[in-house]
Amino acid sequence: MCIVDHFRFVAVLCGDENIELRSGSTSTILSPLYPSNYPNMFTCTWFVTSATESKRPVVEFIVFTTELASDILHIGEGNTFNTTLVSLSGFSAPKKVVSRTVVLWLRFESDQGISDKGFNISLYLVDSDGKFRRAMS
Fold first, then answer.
1. 128, 56 in Cβ contact below 8 A?
2. Is the model's pLDDT at 1 over the cut of 50?
3. Smallest Cα–Cα separation from 107: which of 62, 66, 54?
4. Are 118 and 38 in contact (CB under 8 A)?
5. Domains contained in the chain, number
6. The pTM of the whole model exceeds 0.85
7. For residue range 29-78, what is the model confidence (pLDDT) as tens digits?
8. pLDDT tens, position by position, 6-39
């Protein structure tokens, strides 16, 4: 497989790598091939950005199941990978992870061993004080 095809393949399996959330909007991140098992030796990275300075991205877990201690979802904040908030694997995840900044990143890495169903994650914004307020129409 040529390099261009490889990047196209990764983009198709990972989905949109740059997600901008606006007030009142939601988005979803699925592990590659979800609800089927994700591929081995695979990495996906997503950056979630709030379009509003006073709002913070939230990751809410709907489903989470990966190979314990081997296939890991890292979640952090900021434009670089310097600040990791949590690293998750196995069958349990916190209900929510809230960023303290307008940018949140997620990086999923699978190894060559066992693969599993992966994850279904909902994304939305909360006020910088941590409260969710639905947009009124």
1. yes
2. no
3. 66
4. yes
5. 1
6. yes
7. 999 999 999 999 999 999 999 999 999 999 999 999 999 999 999 999 99
8. 445 555 578 889 999 999 999 999 999 999 999 9
The encoded tokens of residue 19 equal: 């997600």
Q: Which two tokens mark 15?
A: 């989905």
- Tokens 């129409």 locate to 137
Q: Which domain holds residue 97?
A: 3-127
Q: Tokens standing for 65?
A: 């199941």
- CATH classification of the domain holding 98: 2.60.120.290
CA distance 96 to 121: 10
Q: Write down the residue that tokens 């939305």 correspond to.
A: 124
- Buried b / exposed e across 64-74, counting CB within 10 Å, b at 16+? bbbbeebbbbb
Nearest to 59 by CA among 46, 68, 43, 72: 46
